[in-house]
Amino acid sequence: MTTSSYYVPDSSRWPILASIGLILLAAGGGGMLNHMSAGGHGMTLPHFAFYAGALCMSYVLFRWFSNVISESMAGMYSLQMDRSFRWSMCWFIFSEVMFFAAFFGALFYVRQFAVPWLGGEGDKGVAHLLWPDFVPTWPLFNNPAGTDLPGPNQIIDPWHLPLLNTVLLISSSVTITFAHHALRAMQRGRTIFWLAFTIILGATFVYYQILEYVEAYGELGLTLDSGIYGSTFFMLTGFHGVHVTLGAFILFIMWLRICRGHFTPDQHFGFEAAAWYWHFVDMVWIGLFIFVYIL
Q: What local confidence, expressed as pLDDT, does residue 2 receive?
């Protein structure tokens, strides 16, 4: 195949199956949240829809990426296809930036506008008439009276588990960079070592994140039902934790591929894309650590 040709894949069933899986995931996940908010217990139809969607997406991703790997190893992709992959990954990461920007924007709006308005400050301070006894502070320990949403008893101490997790993720950015340099130098053993180290750091981060959530729910009264502070805290940190988990899984797939000798110093975009994603996840955490835990 010449470098000027463009690879056109055969007809595929994966996009439609992925769409079905995503619909089931979204509908099931929303139904599960509503079920839990209503105080329900046990398995319901939304639970089965969510798990069916998860299984469908797992199957689609495994088979779809297997096809892509097989085509790449067969030399079916040109330089033009490589550029397409790179642009696609850039746009994907940009969409993820916008995803987290929406939640950071919600946090900014609540802290800088909504809470002060309820306290009688700013152009819409008349909202204070609704709850005249409300004291505008952040973190919001005391929610407006009559809302049936008790505030948290305490907040997470940023200088213990969050600081440790920050060190873990920053270190993982360094180790994956070492792995990338080793791969470009055709030092496969060092690549395998540093990439495995990165995966271990990511898994350790998730472990401590779970411990933090257990402490928040069991000891601090910090839950999704503890008002706007709890909602923004768990939405931001929870979605980030999901991204770390997915990123670690992607890196594990790259580790398996490197062990099988799939990459060369000049052709390893699969690894590069995983590294880009991991660096993005690390940068988001730094923003979380500053604006959610410290400020």
A: 46
User: Is-contact 292 104, C-beta < 8 A?
Assistant: no
Give yes or no for residue 192 having a pLDDT over 90. Answer: yes
Q: Under a CB-based contact definition with an 8 Å cutoff, are residues 14 and 68 in contact?
A: no
Task: Quote the longest CA-to-CA distance of the chain.
Answer: 74
Question: How far is Cα 146 from Cα 136, in angstroms, rounded to an integer?
Answer: 16
CB 50 within 8 A of CB 32: yes
Token representation of residue 20:
């079905």
Specify the CATH number of the domain 79-294: 1.20.120.80
Checking if the pLDDT of 1 tops 50, the result is: no
Number of neighbouring beta carbons within 10 Å of residue 189: 9
DSSP result, the chain:
--TT----PPP-SHHHHHHHHHHHHHHHHHHHHHHHHTT--S--HHHHHHHHHHHHHHHHHHHHHHHHHHHHHTT---HHHHHHHHHHHHHHHHHHHHHHHHHHHHHHHIIIIIHHHHTT-STTGGGGGT-TT----SS--SPPTTS--PPPSS---TTTHHHHHHHHHHHHHHHHHHHHHHHHTT-HHHHHHHHHHHHHHHHHHHHHHHHHHHHIIIII--STTS-HHHHHHHHHHHHHHHHHHHHHHHHHHHHHHHHTT---SS--HHHHHHHHHHHHHHHHHHHHIIIIII-
Q: Express each pLDDT in 121-149 by its tens digit.
A: 877 777 778 788 888 888 888 877 666 77
**Inter-residue contact 6 to 81 (CB < 8 Å):** yes
**Residue among 166, 290, 163, 153 nearest 215 (CA):** 153
Q: 186: which 2 tokens?
A: 């055709």
Instruction: Report pLDDT digits (tens) over 222-262.
Output: 988 888 899 899 999 999 999 999 999 999 999 999 999 99
